[in-house]
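Our collaborator T.R. sent over the components below with a one-line note: 'Predict the complex.' Nothing else. No constraints on interfaces, no templates requested, no preferences about which chain binds where. So this is a plain run: every listed entity goes in together, and whatever single assembly comes back becomes the starting point for the next discussion.
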Amino acid sequence: MSTKSEQVLAAAAELLARKPGASMDEVARAAGISRATLHRYFAGRDALVTALGALGVRRLDECVDAAAVGEGSASDAVRRLVEQVMPVAGFLAFLYTEHQLFEQDRMDDGWRRVDDRISGLFRRGQQEGEFRPELPPAWLTEALYALVAASDWSVQDGQMAPKDAPTLVIELLLGGALARKPA
Amino acid sequence: MSTKSEQVLAAAAELLARKPGASMDEVARAAGISRATLHRYFAGRDALVTALGALGVRRLDECVDAAAVGEGSASDAVRRLVEQVMPVAGFLAFLYTEHQLFEQDRMDDGWRRVDDRISGLFRRGQQEGEFRPELPPAWLTEALYALVAASDWSVQDGQMAPKDAPTLVIELLLGGALARKPA
DNA sequence: CTCACATGAGATATGGTTGTCTCATGTCTA
DNA sequence: TAGACATGAGACAACCATATCTCATGTGAG
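Returned assembly:
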């Protein structure tokens, strides 16, 4: 019945992506179960958040897999990665801020792994001469997270059309604001 | 004695920039006053946050002033703006996440004003042919906030040298990850 | 000096969330 | 049918932060 707890987790992720401050009760309702049952699955809020973090790592890892970041040009790989990540942007944004709020280093293992994979993509782009070498891969990775989260907030604010979000993130991240010089 | 309440507000901003979840008691201590006195200045946490929001608008507005965004090339103006904004990045990041958490529209007036000023800068850059026209100014403004906040978090994580932060934000925002094609 | 006023420290009450428990109900299987 | 098991609903205490109040202290102005 591990499937059930994953369903609960998914529902929690979906809710918290929209309402980061939701209570355990709200999470339970959103998952279609009672608070008691939720507590049987996850000992407390900490346990829930930790499990959500692990889920986030898994989701993101799947995105990196699906994007096949090792294939083709690095810029195309980044494009594919962002496209893959957008559907989970809200959830990622939740974990992103949660990570800032609590400065502990738990579950660093998983995140470091994903971070390394994405950083590796940017590093490859630099080695192949496609990306600028003066921007650290770790910073580009952070920027990717930040822009994805920001675009999701813009979408939720109604200031950005959902269908435009991937392109706007990609174009800014890869190309920046400056027009390409004709030189 | 409005100066005093501003000092308290500044101290609160400084603390919350580093510790977003700080309690009223911690804020009071950080400001060098007691909880009771803090409560005399600001009726409650909501009032404090609201006042902090107003302070943030003021600070950011001063940054836009100091950057003289109307003068020189738009890209140089963006550079100056980011340089100006970096010292208050932590405070801005706090308000940035706070703004996501509570979805109300209070004090929108002030923010809209600042947003418009910054958006105007990007729009000018587009009209002068320096910036790419396909990225909405509002999105570039959001991205600026997001990248500034992200860089501050990286600095606090010890993953980025404080002195590098402005350059990394500027270079990514303006130039993106892609190397300039020699074509 | 004395009064007015601001402050600090502490006590208290309140609200909201959490963690834990019990009990009744539903469901599935032998 | 009987038993095992999971769940829902609710009660309950505990905790945390907040909000409010009182009282003693200190300081500055008159």
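Summary for T.R.: The interface with chain A takes residues 20-21, 75, 78, 93, 97, 100-101, 122, 125, 129-132, 134-136, 138-140, 142-143, 145-147, 149-151, 153-154, 159-160, 168, 171-181 of chain B (CB under 8 Å).
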